[in-house]
Amino acid sequence: MNKTRKMIKNQKKYTPVIGLEVHIELSTKSKMFCGCPADHFGKKPNTQTCPVCLGLPGALPVPNELAIQNCVKLGLALDCKINKWSNFDRKHYFYPDLPKGYQISQYEDPFCYEGQYLLPSNTDGRDTEKRIGITRVHMEEDTAKLQHTTLNNPSGGESKKVSLVDFNRSGVALVELVTEPDFEQIEDVLIFGKELQTIARYLGISEADMEKGSMRLEANISLREESSDKKTLPNYKVELKNINSYRFLKKAMQYELERQTKLLLKGEVPSQETRGWDEAKSVTFSQRSKETAKDYRYFPDPDIPPIELTDDQIKKIKSQIPELPSQKAKRYKKEFDFPKNYIEILVQDKQKSQYFETAAALKPELAKQIASLMVNKNLDKDYPEPAGLIKKIVQLTKVDYSSTDDTTSAIEEVIKNNPDVVKKYDEGQGSVVGYLIGQTQKLLKGKGDPKKISDMLIKKLQKWGGK
């Protein structure tokens, strides 16, 4: 028993070191290097292809200008520096979803680099902003999509498990964002992913729908000893790949941190590899050893000339960036002093925030009621126009008070029926006014305007006392 306690006491403690790679499909009409439609979701397999996105010999790629502008827009929103001279590279690897045997991507000179994002405080113990470094934001083409299925034998024989390739997604404009390994909490990873998703929607560059695969997260995870220098990274990393929901990402990271901790405590170094997530078994599983940049044999694509951006072009793109969610959240706190949950709900959807601001501009004094009904009742869904919601709020808050004549009659009757109380008022006991107001409201069945009753009652008492 003493030996066990000593082992536990002397166990090393580890801190997570997590970096993210995020892929976002851009909502352009055509693909990155050809004129095929980019909207591939739910379409019949292999119906949106051409020699370019099929990688046929002799087909030449032509870059999509809007996609490049949207990539730069995202980089600017994340405070990145912009390369005025950039080029596309060939990233070589062999896989069935890559028809050319290489992917057109960027390596040496990405469009955007050295950015940052300030994460807000979270619910996991951190009450200050945290800086997350953005290594790069670059442009590439998406791969085809593999479909693993079982085909029945029409002649009644044994069915076969097969992998089919749908090339509709091949060549779709894809932005890749790489962060520095600055995350130490799983909660921060999830916050960043959701914030980035909202930013993409605010910018209008992508729906970033994880269920449809238009936003995909990959986490690089390792552990360092708590006592070690933060600047010294572990000598390995494990990449969690192809995760399409925040719930799965959270579970995969939790499992992976536990798995790596057990290995390190046994004196073993986790293998540098790519792992997937098995939801049915709630475990990560090894897919392949992790490649390095050298394995990809990058070199400039000779079919695509270098891309040059001018100061005027960058300035124009920057002017198109709206107020971002984090900026809007700070403004709402300052202007309206809303609770945190109100702000989070209002800013997470650009249309919802625009609706609120339009309604609040119509009736500034009702801003808090507008926000409350939008957050707690979703009344903005029932009233497409903000003016309709304002009208509803006015109806809900409107009180049909008794008329002046009815109020006057009730006050006079109360004074007449309570001579002893009136005498106390004449003797200087002002507190009896509250009792008389209550009696008046009783006669008016609660429909009296309290302020009006108070003002009129005091005037009547003063006149009455003078008689």
Topology:
Elements: H1 2-9, E1 14-25, H2 65-77, E2 81-82, E3 85-86, E4 89-92, E5 102-105, E6 112-119, E7 130-141, E8 145-151, E9 160-166, E10 173-179, H3 186-203, E11 215-225, E12 238-243, H4 246-265, E13 273-278, E14 283-289, E15 299-300, E16 307-308, H5 311-319, H6 325-336, H7 340-347, H8 350-362, H9 367-376, H10 379-382, H11 386-397, H12 404-417, H13 419-426, H14 432-443, H15 450-466
Parallel strand pairs: 12-13
Antiparallel strand pairs: 1-10, 1-11, 2-6, 3-16, 4-5, 4-15, 6-7, 7-10, 8-9, 11-12, 13-14
Q: How confident is the prediction overall: mean pLDDT?
A: 90
Strand order of the largest sheet: 2-6-7-10-1-11-12-13-14
* Helix amount: 25-40%
For the record, the count of structural domains works out to 3
Number-wise, the strands total: 16
Count of alpha/pi helices: 15
Overall structural class, as computed from helix and strand content, comes to alpha+beta
Low-confidence stretches: 1-9
Strand content: 15-25%
Tell me about this structure:
The structure is a single chain. The protein is of the alpha+beta class and 467 residues long. It folds into three domains: 10-317, no CATH class; 323-397, no CATH class; 404-466, Arc Repressor Mutant, subunit A. Helix content is 38%, strand content 21%. It contains 15 helices and 16 strands. It has helices at 2-9, 65-77, 186-203, 246-265, 311-319, 325-336, 340-347, 350-362, 367-376, 379-382, 386-397, 404-417, 419-426, 432-443, 450-466; strands at 14-25, 81-82, 85-86, 89-92, 102-105, 112-119, 130-141, 145-151, 160-166, 173-179, 215-225, 238-243, 273-278, 283-289, 299-300, 307-308. Strands 2-6-7-10-1-11-12-13-14 form a nine-stranded mixed β-sheet. It has a three-stranded antiparallel β-sheet with strand order 5-4-15, with no helix packed on it. It has a two-stranded antiparallel sheet with strand order 3-16. Strand 12, helix 4 (246-265) and strand 13 (273-278) form a beta-alpha-beta unit. The protein starts with a helix and ends with a helix. The relative contact order is 0.11. The model is unreliable at 1-9 (pLDDT under 50).
